[in-house]
Amino acid sequence: MLKTFLTENNIPFLENESLKKHTTFKVGGNAAFVAMPEDKIQALQLLKFLKENGIKYYTIGRGSNVIFRDSGFDGVIIKTANMQQIEYIDETTVFAGAGVPMNLLCKSLQENSLEGLEFCYGIPGNVGGGLYMNAGAYGGEISNAVYQVEYIDENCEIKTIDVKDCDFSYRHSVFQGKDWLITGCIFKLVKGDKDKILSFMEDIMQRRIDKQPLDKPSAGSSFKRPVGYFAAALIEQCGLKGCSVGGAQVSEKHSGFIVNMGDATCADIVALAEHVEKVVFEKTGVAIEKEMIII
């Protein structure tokens, strides 16, 4: 029934698909289906069908901040990575689809001399995930440039929400805990100098290369920053740099990252993250919290 629906509506899909291929951590079991709508209309049709038929689903972009359990997902993964429209509404206003990679958006804005999101260069996710988590780096957050977010609500209606109503804060947005699917965003930028923006982006990327374990699968920074502290410094202070469980390791290059050394399972990563949280709290009294989402 589902396979027939996807085929008849020309929605690209994969069946019995390994989720290792769809997360940057490269772990997880199989999903019954991975469906990849190419625009908001296909996404709307898919959501309506899934809801009407009581089929379980979960939405991802690039899977850069999520890991799936080794048992897999007995339902449909809606992957928005195909929704890659970028439209320049006027000189400083840009619409980007949920599936646009942050790097691609940053490069496009730079080429058009627009600044406001250049700190996102190198964040390994898409626009939708960036909005969901209010992604940020080097003192900036994606919410700084948001004007309106377009989404499909729990009643399968396409709506927009103004930035003031998005409840953005550190690694938080109104979209968390809601049965909504982000389809795109209108960003408000400011005119800048193309060369200076490029220089800033290149500097950020070099700092990432120098400090972060980009050569190994991970979900980026593994822990949220506790108020008044830096998670990586606390972890290192507790002697946990290089600590491992199975194929998962606290990176020896940056202790704020848990990395897949090649054969890690989801269970390895979860066990290591929980061990780090426990030891840090016991030794410092500071509670740190996983940033990655475990499904």
The major β-sheet equals:
5 strands, antiparallel
- Segments where pLDDT lies below 50 for 5+ residues? none
Shape label: globular
Seen as an oligomer or otherwise, the chain set is: single chain
Structural class: alpha+beta
Radius of gyration: 19 Å
Helix content: 25-40%
Spatial strand order of the main sheet: 6-7-13-11-12
Our count of domains comes out at: 3
Strand percentage lies at 15-25%
Instruction: Count all strands and give the number.
Output: 18
The arrangement of helices and strands along the chain is HEEHEEEEEHEHEEEEEEHHEEEHE
- The N- to C-terminal Cα distance equals 25 Å
Overall pLDDT score: 95
Name of the CATH architecture of the largest domain: 2-Layer Sandwich
CATH class of the largest domain: Alpha Beta
Structural description of this entry:
With 295 residues, the chain is of the alpha+beta class. It has three domains: 81 residues, Uridine Diphospho-n-acetylenolpyruvylglucosamine Reductase, domain 2 (2-Layer Sandwich), CATH 3.30.43.10; 126 residues, Uridine Diphospho-n-acetylenolpyruvylglucosamine Reductase, domain 3 (2-Layer Sandwich), CATH 3.30.465; 64 residues, UDP-N-acetylenolpyruvoylglucosamine reductase, C-terminal domain (Uridine Diphospho-n-acetylenolpyruvylglucosamine Reductase, domain 1, Alpha-Beta Complex), CATH 3.90.78.10. It is 27% helix and 24% strand. It has seven helices and 18 strands. The strands form six sheets. It has a five-stranded antiparallel sheet. A hairpin with a 5-residue loop joins strand 11 and strand 12. The radius of gyration is 19 Å and the shape is globular. It starts with a helix and ends with a strand. The mean pLDDT is 95.
